[in-house]
Amino acid sequence: MAPYCVLAARLRHALNSGVRRYHVAPVLCQRAKVAMSHFEPNEYINYEKLEKNINIVRKRLDRPLTLSEKIVYGHLDDPAKQEIERGKTYLRLRPDRVAMQDATAQMAMLQFISSGLPKVAVPSTIHCDHLIEAQSGGEKDLKRAKDINQEVYNFLSTAGAKYGVGFWKPGSGIIHQIILENYSYPGVMLIGTDSHTPNGGGLGGVCIGVGGADAVDVMAGIPWELKCPKVIGVKLTGKLSGWTSPKDVILKVAGILTVKGGTGAIIEYHGPGVDSISCTGMATICNMGAEIGATTSIFPYNERMKKYLGKTGRADIAALADEFKQHLVPDSGCQYDQVIEINLSELKPHINGPFTPDLAHPVSDIGAVAEKEGWPVDIRVGLIGSCTNSSYEDMGRSAAVAKQALAHGLKCKSMFTITPGSEQIRATIERDGYAKILREVGGLVLANACGPCIGQWDRKDIKKGEKNTIVTSYNRNFTGRNDANPETHAFVTSPEIVTALSIAGTLKFNPETDYLTGADGKKFKLEAPDADELPKLEFDPGQDTYQYPPKDGSGQRVDVSPTSQRLQLLEPFDKWDGKDLEDMLILIKVKGKCTTDHISAAGPWLKFRGHLDNISNNLLIGAINIENGKANSVRNALTQEFGPVPDTARYYKKMGVKWAVIGDENYGEGSSREHAALEPRHLGGRVIITKSFARIHETNLKKQGLLPLTFADPADYNKIHPVDKLSIVGLKDFAPGKPLKCIIKHPNGSQETIMLNHTFNESQIEWFQAGSALNRMKELQQKSS
Predict the structure, then answer these.
(1) What fold is seen in the domain 581-784?
(2) Would you say residue 19 has pLDDT above 50?
(3) Is 68 assigned a catalytic role?
(4) Which one of the listed residues 97, 650, 673, 686 is annotated catalytic?
C-alpha cells in the first residue's frame, strides 16, 4: 500500500486536474511533503511548482517539450516573462541546491564570506574528496591526508557550520557518488563546483558543473544565469549485453561529437534502449558527458531509477516521482536540435585515448592501432573506480572477471588499483566479498576519494619522462593528468575491460575473442561478466562521515591565519576605469589544446586551492608557447628574456602593464576550476582571445571581470604574434551582441584591425564594469540596504 503522504499527493493532484474542485485538508497536504534528503528533513521537493512553471512555458511556446526543457524551464525565476530561445537567450534560474568538492569549496566559501551574508539560501554541501593522495592504500592514505590537510578541513568544517552548509568529512567518498546516493532525484536542478556534476543526470536531474562564483550566486539567493541550452537527443535502441557496458555508450558518443561537440547543449538520452541500463550506468554516461563539453546530460525517469531510489532509502521520493512522471519524461513529438542514434545490441566495447577522451577505438582494434602509432602496448597500471565508474555494479562486474582469472591461477600482470566511490560502496563490497576478490587478483584498494583520476597519485613505478601506458575507468586522460608525466599514455574504458587488460598486461588482448593461459598451461577464455546492479541485502552505510550544520551557526568562529600558506582571504579586484584597454602585452600565444589542467594544474598544486597568490604560481605552466614550442617558457616583452609564465605575469603586474592571452579552439575545456580564471585576473590579465571557449571556463572568466573574446574570423588567430601589442577599443559602448574592435600593433610600426565577438549579456557587462560578479553583488546589496 502506498504511504499516506503519497496518497495525499495523489489525491491532491487528481482533484486539482479534474473538473470538480474539492477541498483537501491542510493537514493532509502537509503530510504529503517529501524531503529532498534524509539530511534535510525540512527541505521539501516541490513538484507542484515545477508543474506550474512547465505549464506556463508550454502554453507560451505552444509545442511539446524535451525533458531537459521541462526541468530547466521548470526552474525559471519568471516563467511568464522569461525570453526563451535555445542557444541564444540567457535564462534566470532558481536551482534547488548546491554541492562543492573541497578543492573548489575553499575559494567558493572564501567568496561567500566576502559577500557578508549570514547563511546560505538553498541547501548546500561540501565534500572532502580531492585532497587525499594515493600512496599505499586506503586507511594509511586517509590518515595522512587528515594530518596534512587539517587546516583546510577545519576551515571548511567551521565555515560550513557557520553558514549552514552540510559537511562530508574526508573518507566519505567522491562528491558525485554521494550526490547520487543522497541528493539527486528526478526533476532536481543542482549545480556543483565540479565539471562532472552531470553524474546526477543518471537519476533524472539537471545537474550542472559551475565555478565557485556561480555557486555563490545561488547560495546568496540570486537567480543564476545560464545560456538557454540546445538539446541533443541520443536515441538508444537495442539492449546492452556481453562485454558492452554503459561506459561504451559515452565513449562512442565522445567519438562522434568530439570534446567540443556538446558545448552549449544538454545531451538527452531517450528511446527503448534506455531501460536496459542500470541507474548507476546512466550516471556513468552522464558523468563523462562533461568530456564533450555538454552543459549536462540526462535520462528520463524509469523503473531502474525507482529501484535505485528504493535501495538507497528513498522510496518516498520514487513514489512521489511516479505521481508527477509526466513531467519527468519528454513529451511525445518533442524536437531536438540534433539526433544521434545508437543500437546498443550492435555497440562494441570501446577504449578511448591517449591524451584526449574523444579518440575512440573498439577494444578489438586498439592493439593494432597502438603498434602502428608507436604507443606502448604493455600496460603498466590498470585503475578502476573514480566518480565515473565506482558503483556496486561496476565493482561486481570487475570482480566477476577477476574471479575467473583466480580460478585458473592467474593474477594481474599489471599493477592494479581500486577506488571505491563512497564509504557506502566500500563497506558493501567488503561485506559482499568483491573487495577480497579484487585484492586477491593483485589489486590495491585506495581511499574513497578522487585519487589518481585527478593527479593525486604518488606514483613510484616509473620516472617522469618515461614512456608508458595505463588504462583506467576514469573520464579524463589529458597529458600528464593522472601522474604529471607527459609521456604516460592514458586510455579510458569500462572497469571490466580495465580488469581484463590488467590480467593480460597488454593492449593487444581482446577479451571477446582472445585466450589466456592458466597456471596449469591450459588456455581459457574469459566469459562476459555478470553482476547485480544493486546488492541483494541493503547497502552497508559504513562509518558515519556527515556533519550536520547547527540550527544557528552565527556564533561559530572561522579562522584564516594571515600567515597561512594554504588559505588567504580575498581582496576585491579593481573596477574597470572606464577606458579602452590599450597597448596590452601578450603573455602567451597558446598552441593547440589548452585545458584547465594546462591553465591551472592540479596534483601537487591542489594544496594551494584556498590561497590565490600561491596557486597563481602555476598559471599556464602546462600551455605550449607557439613562439618556441615549449611549456612554461615565454618572452618577457619588457626585458626580452625568456622565463616562466607566472614570473613574467608578475613582472608585468609589478610594472603596471596589462596583458592578454591568445588561445586556440575550445580553450579551457575540462575541469570547472575557477582558479583558471582567478589566477590570470590576480596577476594582471584583462583579456583572453581565442577561437572558441569551453562553457564553464568562459563563464568563470566573466565572473572574475575578465573579457573572454573570440575571433570573428578564426583565421585572425594567425595575425597576432607574441611580440605584438593589442588594444581593445569601444568598451564605452560595450553592449550585448555588439562586436569589439581589436587593434594589433606590430613591432615594425604597422598595425591592423580585427573584430572580436563576445557572449556578454547586460548583467555580465555589469560584472566587467564592477571588476567581478562578487563586486557587483556587493554593489546591489549596498543599494538595497
Answers:
(1) Aconitase; domain 4 (3.20.19)
(2) no
(3) no
(4) 673
